[in-house]
């Protein structure tokens, strides 16, 4: 009876699975050969990545002038992309940390890949501020070391420096959280490996994990404490990112609701990206029995909630911009001026992709449909990119004086670097999907008896 | 003294938990139990002391906070005071509000990383470490109970059979 779960709850693991079947299913994508689709996706991503690398070299070699920036708009695509990628990076730790604290069993099928997504997304995010420095070889100046002209230190009053600390803490803590969870699963692959080279690699990756009772006791405690630490951490990261804007004096940016609104937006976009990746991954790795309709529905519920918070925040920003009666406020990113001005297309893209389309998820049939969830998740990814673009480009395009009214036009380098990071992200994710256990199999085994379809059926028939 | 041990295999988490309780009740020493996944209550049944790793995390967090206070004070107030945007820099206290994000991040950074390093050191797991589980099945679907033998092989074997072991091997431990 220690594995009792209410019969009303749908099973999280479908089919007649035993512990050994879980091992087999999760080891299969690693031990088998990649199919043609994997190679096609990999080469396309690789090409996109190389294009991005070329654009980065061109930027660094020539100067930031090759971007579409001008005297008024010094931030545009680069910081948009930075905030977009950091936002995407929020779902992984949220799923593994917050849902662990809430004892949500459904997180176990998706936490591994969501965390991988987090780490790979934060890599991409980190690239943009470094490239924007113009002299990336001096990037280490952001560390708290005296510079070579004396003992002048970094400025701890600056939100940009807070970002350095927040994002590096977030990246490194997410990485150890992920890796610690991976140890038992790497050990499983190691103990099954037949080829000597494979055995060697997975022995190295598994750090010699042996699965003693004491190790498991510590493992669970460490996971719990890391979840407790990562929960405020994940909220702090996008709070601090929002302070890059909120502590400035630009109307449209200087807004006290930015921190909670950015955090909700980050979770919204992160879950959308998890939804996009899971929609593909469950098919190509044949893990449909572990990533089920129920998982998709649960994620869609989180998307409705966080999307709702974001929509309310948009509404209040729009209202306040109008209510101030200030003509200048009428040019912030959520205002009548923005809705009818030269950036109306960006404004309406934001409203359509971020507010209108996700409302379809209120319909249960859509929420439980793989294909519709996938399409909506793509829409949200686009919408959340526009949110950051609107905040940055629309606000900066209208200065206090008409002589400072400029427009931002991206160059091929702006778009090229963005495409490059998408390519790099998918290169990393595709390699991960072939070499890492993509589901936390040790954790999934602990819920097999409570939430596995066959065990639930057995229990329910005994009760009748 | 002989180094003989019994390896009893189980293929179910509930059975192994009951078996541990029965072996303990018969006053035998359980050297180790290797599991493919965590079994709740197993540590208590085996008589393992609760882990103190959460306490170390708290201490590391306090250390991280201390380092952050020292660092911001030394760099921004003592060594090279900078007046940025008119933010007061005469005392650490009056400038502290701007340091809150740094204080928080370094607290988490120290607590998380040092706790994980402590876990790796205490459980003896690190790169290039050789695995010590005696059978590869223990990372798949089998649980292995290791009991030292002191000329009581028959008694132990029959006890373990009763508890539902699926395989019992007596091996020489090196």
Task: Please tell me about this protein's structure.
The complex is a heterodimer of chains A (464) and B (174). Chain A has 464 residues and is mostly helical. Chain A has one domain. Helices cover 69% and strands 0% of the residues of chain A. In chain A, α4 packs antiparallel against α5, α4 packs across α8 and α5 packs across α6. Chain A is globular and about 75 Å long. The model of chain A has no long low-confidence stretch (mean pLDDT 90). By secondary structure, chain B is α+β, with helices and mostly antiparallel strands. Chains A and B meet through α1, α6, α8 and α16 of A and β2, α2, α3 and α5 of B.
The parts of chain A where pLDDT drops under 50 for at least 5 residues are none
Structure classification of chain A: mainly alpha
Largest sheet of chain B: 4 strands, antiparallel
User: How many separate structural domains of chain B?
Assistant: 2
CATH domain class name of the largest domain in chain B: Alpha Beta
Number of distinct helices of chain B: 6
CATH architecture of the largest domain in chain B: 2-Layer Sandwich
Largest interface: A-B, 68 and 68 residues
Order of helices and strands of chain B: EHEHHHHEHE
The average pLDDT score of chain B comes to 90
Number of strands of chain B: 4
Largest sheet of chain A: none
Q: What percent of the residues of chain A sit in helical stretches (DSSP H or I)?
A: 55-70%
Query: Structural class of the secondary structure composition of chain B?
Result: alpha+beta
Proportion of residues in extended strands of chain B: 5-15%
What is the straight-line distance between the termini of chain B? 12 Å
Helix content of chain B: 40-55%
């Amino acid at each position: 009876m220690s594995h009792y779960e209410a019969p009303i709850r749908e099973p999280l693991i479908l089919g007649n699975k035993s512990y050994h079947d879980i091992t087999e299913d999760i080891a299969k994508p690693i031990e088998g050969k990649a199919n043609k689709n994997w190679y096609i996706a990999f080469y396309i991503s690789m090409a996109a990545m190389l294009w991005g690398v070329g654009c980065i070299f061109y930027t660094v070699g020539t100067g930031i002038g090759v971007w579409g920036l001008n005297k008024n708009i010094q931030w545009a695509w680069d910081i948009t992309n930075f905030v977009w990628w950091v936002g995407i990076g929020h779902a992984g730790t949220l799923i593994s940390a917050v849902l662990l604290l809430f004892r949500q069993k459904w997180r176990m099928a998706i936490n591994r890949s969501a965390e991988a997504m987090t780490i790979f997304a934060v890599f991409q995010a980190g690239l943009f501020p470094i490239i924007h420095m113009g002299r990336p070889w001096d990037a280490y100046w952001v560390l708290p070391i005296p510079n070579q002209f004396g003992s002048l230190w970094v400025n701890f009053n600056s939100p940009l420096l807070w970002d350095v600390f927040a994002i590096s803490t977030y990246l490194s803590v997410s990485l150890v959280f992920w890796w610690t969870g991976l140890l038992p699963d790497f050990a499983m692959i190691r103990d099954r490996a037949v080829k000597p080279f494979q055995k060697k690699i997975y022995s190295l990756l598994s750090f010699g994990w042996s699965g003693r009772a004491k190790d498991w006791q510590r493992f669970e405690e460490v996971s719990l404490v890391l979840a407790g630490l990562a929960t405020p951490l994940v909220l702090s990261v996008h709070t601090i990112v929002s302070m890059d804007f909120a502590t400035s004096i630009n109307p449209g940016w200087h807004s006290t609701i930015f921190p909670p609104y950015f955090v909700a937006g980050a979770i919204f976009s992160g879950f959308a990206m998890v939804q996009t990746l899971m929609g593909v991954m469950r098919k190509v790795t044949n893990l449909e029995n572990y990533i089920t309709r129920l998982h998709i529905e649960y994620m869609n519920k989180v998307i409705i909630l966080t999307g709702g918070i974001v929509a309310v925040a948009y509404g209040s920003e729009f209202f306040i911009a109008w209510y101030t009666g200030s003509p200048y406020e009428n040019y912030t990113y959520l205002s009548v001026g923005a809705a009818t001005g030269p950036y109306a297309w960006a404004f309406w893209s934001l409203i359509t992709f971020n507010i209108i389309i996700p409302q379809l998820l209120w319909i249960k049939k859509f929420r439980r449909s793989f294909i519709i969830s996938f399409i909506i998740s793509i829409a949200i990814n686009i919408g959340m990119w526009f949110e950051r673009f609107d905040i940055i480009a629309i606000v900066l395009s209208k200065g206090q004086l008409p002589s400072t009214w400029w427009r931002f036009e991206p160059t091929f380098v702006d778009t090229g670097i963005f495409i490059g990071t998408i390519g790099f992200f998918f290169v990393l994710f595709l390699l991960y999907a072939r070499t890492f256990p993509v589901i936390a199999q040790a954790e999934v085994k602990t819920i097999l008896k409570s939430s596995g379809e066959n065990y639930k059926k057995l229990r329910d028939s005994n009760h009748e | 003294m002989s180094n003989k041990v019994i390896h009893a295999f189980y293929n179910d988490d509930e059975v192994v938990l009951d078996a541990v309780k029965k072996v303990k009740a018969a006053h035998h020493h359980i050297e180790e139990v290797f599991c493919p996944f965590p079994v709740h209550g197993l540590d208590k049944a085996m008589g393992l002391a609760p882990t103190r790793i959460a306490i170390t995390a708290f201490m590391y967090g306090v250390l991280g906070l201390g380092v952050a206070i020292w660092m911001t004070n030394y760099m921004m107030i003592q060594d090279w005071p900078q007046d940025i945007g008119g933010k007061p820099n005469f005392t650490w206290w009056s400038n502290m509000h701007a340091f809150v994000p740094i204080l928080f991040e370094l607290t988490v950074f120290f607590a998380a990383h040092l706790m994980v390093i402590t876990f790796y050191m205490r459980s003896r797991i690190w790169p290039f470490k050789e695995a010590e589980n005696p059978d590869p099945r223990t990372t798949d679907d089998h649980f292995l109970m290791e009991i030292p033998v002191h000329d009581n092989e028959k008694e132990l074997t029959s006890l373990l059979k009763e508890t539902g072991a699926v395989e019992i091997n007596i091996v020489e431990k090196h």
